[in-house]
Amino acid sequence: MADTTGAGEPTLDEQIAAYQREFQDLDPQVEKIVSALSRLNRRMNVAYGRQTGALGISNAEWEVLKALVLSGVPYRMGPSELAKRLGLTPAAMTHRIDRMVAGGLVTRARDESNRVRVIVELTPEGREKWLEAMRLASVFEEDLLQDLSLAERSVLGEVLTRLLRRVEHAQPDAGGRLTDLD
Amino acid sequence: MADTTGAGEPTLDEQIAAYQREFQDLDPQVEKIVSALSRLNRRMNVAYGRQTGALGISNAEWEVLKALVLSGVPYRMGPSELAKRLGLTPAAMTHRIDRMVAGGLVTRARDESNRVRVIVELTPEGREKWLEAMRLASVFEEDLLQDLSLAERSVLGEVLTRLLRRVEHAQPDAGGRLTDLD
DNA sequence: GATGTAGTCTTTAGCTTCGAACTTTATCTT
DNA sequence: AAGATAAAGTTCGAAGCTAAAGACTACATC
After folding, report:
1. Domains present along chain A, CATH in parentheses
2. What is the pLDDT, as a whole number, of residue A169?
3. For residue A69, which residues of chain B lie inside 8 Å, CB to CB?
4. Contacts of residue B79 in chain A, CB cutoff 8 Å?
5. What percent of chain B has pLDDT over 90?
6. Which of B181, B154, B112, B26 is nearest to A159 (CA)?
7. Dihedral of the CA atoms B48, A60, A169, B161 (nearest 10)?
8. What distance in Å separates the CA atoms of residue A76 and residue A178, rounded to the nearest whole number?
9. What would the pLDDT profile of A43-79 be if each residue is shown by its tens digit?
10. Does B7 score more than 80 pLDDT?
11. Residue B3 CA to D22 C1' — how many Å?
12. Would an 8 Å CB–CB cutoff place B180 in contact with chain A?
């Protein structure tokens, strides 16, 4: 379970109509964008989960592999750095690393120059898993976007990064309004 | 914690560059769109979480309220219907309803015409909570999209629903490819 | 060099979820 | 009717998460 496939969910247009019925002062166009974004993301995560599952790892483990690989050679990071990157508590990171060490995806060693620190390092097996997952993911992503023209891709990318900048550089105040930080 | 704010995360462009370095056959434009989508969604969920938290409910409870309100008067649904809608197991639904009954957001009653069934019904307090949350959310969403022109909003909505249709009407096969169902 | 303080993990307790087994009620078959 | 089958929720045990407390190391200050 925990499919989040959205089976039995109303169509997007039905949902917008219901919103309009229950909450009048709502811009349907805004709501459509927001709802589509959220749904699209959930469906994509389900797809990623199926792919990583087929490789015998979880999405959670895939994220750790991703952080390590993207950090570049020699593929090492400390647990707290990883935790911050993934938005986890240090406690959760400890346990996740435990599982991944047991699965042979990473190794854990004490930093000899500073014995408080721990070094998590990607194993060759872990790197290979990530590559396999990436191969599947990139095929899926290409297929997903295949109907979009080059112009549409360009606009979509630009608009999304603009929105991203807005949430990142602004924080909602108590009333929920976004106020610029800089 | 569990902020998922992405503190200490590389910028989007740095991340794309790292992908290129570690995995050559990747279309940077595709990856930019996908990464932006995912990040944007995480940041938005954090914002929603702050807002619902300020109202004394969790995002999880907010989702149940949403499903009930959108179902329309008389705001009633069965646990399994709710579970399917939210992508939860029946077990998780049972517990979530327990908590919401305790919090006065919904009531639980046996259906007298079919005593296997249970009816979860929104309380006036629950409906009011949802309205408050919606007021905050709609302000946030308007602010988020404020820099987009009408034309851009229209294109964005159209493109996103097209992508959504593609994931919904197609399922990735074992190799990860999306194959049309109809 | 003893003591305090800060930083980095790990441990513990409690919560939410999933998967699977179980209970209760309705329905179908004969 | 009687018994099998199906459907709807709940209960149970394990996994993974958070928050808070604890343990250990490094470093500053006296």
Report:
1. 11-54 (no CATH), 58-145 (1.10.10.10)
2. 74
3. 18, 22
4. none
5. 82
6. B154
7. -60
8. 37
9. 999 999 999 999 999 999 999 999 999 999 899 999 9
10. no
11. 24
12. no
